[in-house]
Specification:
Length: about 325
């Protein structure tokens, strides 16, 4: 991909931010780029994935390879040892983070549903992922209000993973604020999955040339542009990535993991009639475009209601699920 395309796209994104003020305590991240390094922080090794500037000061986005949690930190607070990504993979290949990333790479052959599709099989319950693809419709808030009602007194905050696109954030500032408020009230806990910026889809194209596989796709912008938008909206990017349409090929999986991101598939896309079993990574759409999946999920909640009350059917935090699946 020619460098100027990326630069142009990032400039365009910056221009969009300048003309689209958002609420909350957010700041624009500039000079945002991939930067791989390790450092010691609070007695733990952290893996630095990105470097950027906020108000003229350098910052890092990093992951804890044991907990798979991410955070940002002022660069001045740690001594970073710049390292090639491949060397980080080799050195930390026994940590849950890198183990999961390597496992996802192994499952990269199929055109659809590459990556981690199931986790934490020993426990009763599921991990819920909700995709927020670009949409003109509002967020399907009933998903969240139903979850909060059903899990009240059983499991709070309720853990959910949301795959968010840049374009959804651009047109749903109020919905994002509503979600952030639920997090603040400790009703839900969100893991933010990168679902690309544009999420291109052309119904006329075959899958091999569709979604992220569309010729001319600027992968750098699709990934980093989404992370910049997340930070701009006060959302913490995680190390997880969901392919638009769940469509990818081995080369694209390699490209995505090269950003330190773990592709997350699904073994229970409810609207496609796939059933949720223990350990399933359930997929529904929360962008108003998949009412069947939302209805199925609410029915599932009702069916399992007695088990929920008995704590025999719980929801799991994606980071926790992957950590348990790939821990020692
Ligand atoms: Zn999508």
């Amino acid at each position: 991909m020619p460098k100027y395309t990326t630069t142009f796209s990032l400039l365009l994104l910056l221009a969009l931010f300048l003309f689209c003020p958002v609420t909350g305590n957010t700041q624009t991240a500039t000079n945002y780029h991939r930067y791989f390094a390790t450092a010691q922080y609070n007695g733990n090794t952290i893996i630095i994935l990105r470097k950027f500037e906020q108000q003229g000061k350098p910052y890092y986005l990093y992951a804890d390879p044991k907990t798979i949690e991410t955070a940002t930190i002022a660069a001045a607070k740690v001594t970073a040892q710049a390292t090639k990504w491949d060397d980080i993979v080799t050195t930390y290949k026994t940590t849950p983070y890198i183990k999961a990333l390597l496992a996802a790479q192994q499952q990269s052959v199929a055109l659809q549903d590459a990556g981690i599709t199931h986790a934490y099989p020993k426990e009763k319950g599921i991990t819920l992922t909700i995709d927020l693809c670009p949409s003109h419709k509002p967020l399907d808030r009933v998903i969240f209000t139903s979850l909060i009602t059903e899990f009240k007194k059983i499991e709070t905050p309720v853990p959910v993973a949301l795959s968010v696109t840049g374009r959804f954030m651009l047109t749903h500032a109020e919905d994002i604020d509503w979600l952030k408020n639920l997090v603040k009230q400790k009703e839900i806990n969100i893991t933010w999955i990168n679902h690309t910026y544009n999420h291109h889809y052309d119904p006329k194209l075959p899958l091999t040339k569709n979604f992220l596989l569309e010729p001319g796709t600027d992968i750098d912008f699709e990934i980093l542009g989404t992370e910049i938008a997340m930070l701009q909206h006060g959302l913490m990017p995680s190390v997880f990535f969901r392919f638009p349409g769940l469509v990818s090929d081995a080369k694209m999986v390699q490209a995505v993991t090269g950003y330190g991101l773990i592709p997350i598939g699904s073994d229970a896309w409810l609207a496609k009639g796939q059933a949720a079993n223990a350990g399933s990574l359930v997929l529904i759409h929360g962008n108003g475009n998949e009412p069947i999946g939302v209805k199925d999920f609410i029915n599932l909640l009702k069916t399992e209601q007695s088990k929920v009350t008995d704590k025999q059917w719980l929801l799991y935090d994606l980071r926790e699920s992957v950590k348990n699946e790939f821990g020692e």
